[in-house]
Amino acid sequence: MHDIFLSYSTKDRARLQPLFHTLAQQGWSVFWDHQSIHTGENWHRKIEEAINNSRCVVVVWSKHSIQSEWVLEEASRGKSRNVLLPIRIDAIEPPFGFGMRQAGDFTGWNGKGDHPAFIELAAQIYGLLGRGSQPPPPPPKSRMGVVLAGMAAVAVGAGVYWQQNDGVGGKDSTAIARLVAPVAEPPIVSSPVATPPTPASAVVLPATPPQPPEPKTLPFEPEMVAILAGKFTMGCDGKRDDVEGGCSDDEKPAHQVTLKAFQMGKYEVTFDQWDACEKAKACPHAEDQGWGRGNRPVINVSWDDITQKYIPWLNQETGKTYRLPTEAEWEYAARGGTDTAYPWGNAIGKGNANCDNSSCGDKFEYTAPVGSFAANGYGLNDMNGNVWEWLQDSWHGDYKGAPVDGSAWESGGSASRVLRGGSWDNDAQGVRSANRGHYTPGIRSYSLGFRLASGR
Fold this sequence. Notes:
single chain; alpha/beta; Rossmann fold; paralog of FGE (formylglycine-generating enzyme); four-stranded antiparallel beta sheet; 18 strands; globular; CTDL_fold; formylglycine-generating oxidase activity; Toll_tir_struct_dom_sf; TIR_dom; TIR domain-containing protein
């Protein structure tokens, strides 16, 4: 049994990656056909079992899903079981028969768990699931008043309740959410006040003990994105990757890889971040070719510089364990949950990445500041193009005998280390998610950079 059944149009899959990840990060099990149905399983049977047994159904209305018979059928099942929670990601009206249920407005959602739209949805989910599931933590204190006002919340003892017209459980039913005290804030002792009467259906939860403070994030630390466990086909799948010049033999054979959850840097490591290490006299100087420093990706750093100088210094300064990604982690993350040659589709298009201008049509002559292009479905920027990214693996000329668990492949290869992603001076073929490269670990170049990973 899953906590949540996510009903959506497959045309919106890439847009909904952040929602799936944010729901799962709250500790809820989410049935998402893209990751919940495995090879050889019957789609119809699995979906029917999940829609009938999931504890709530979140239907995502969009310009595509309101035309989908699958989504309408799934939403009808959720409605008949009285466990339907609708949201909309486009400015559209719900289909006939669903207009009486207020849909959460996710048209302006920023993909984060502290946004008012997500807070309200999560609290309604918690109201359905009850004590067996944890609600998300509240937003930072500076935004608490705004969020509570938007939710029309009324404090009741140690919890919060609000009226939910024509929602789950019938008209004027009551949903309950527990708000965790903001991190590192002392408990507030207020003078006695009159307590509003508690609705009969309300469940008031005991106060949550103060939580330990989160580890501090230093200015030069990377922003990390949680990547959930999963499986994918790594390498050149002819139906998927043989585009824009085609696949190379070193991308074969395509093979299934199953990965544990890990974290990946949202951006490539920048000059600002590298220069902090140089200032501490722990890293060598990295030349910028006269293109600028700041938030451009650091270049002219070798695999040896990164693994022997930068990462040990960063781990010592932060008390954390950063590392280079494995090749399997990199490709899984670069694809962003899609099954296409690029995270945005099967053609390079224009303005999607920083590569050779005749191929990509971008405005940058050399490197671009990180985050200049849209993030992929996992929330990662510049995985394709900008700079080649050093990885942990040793170079092997093909995937015969490659690990299938996502670990680094460091035995039996050459002295070179793997590079992925292509760069500002590669063509469309070179920035496909399947493309591979390599260099000796001591080489420095104006097209080579890196990003960090952690976890596993």
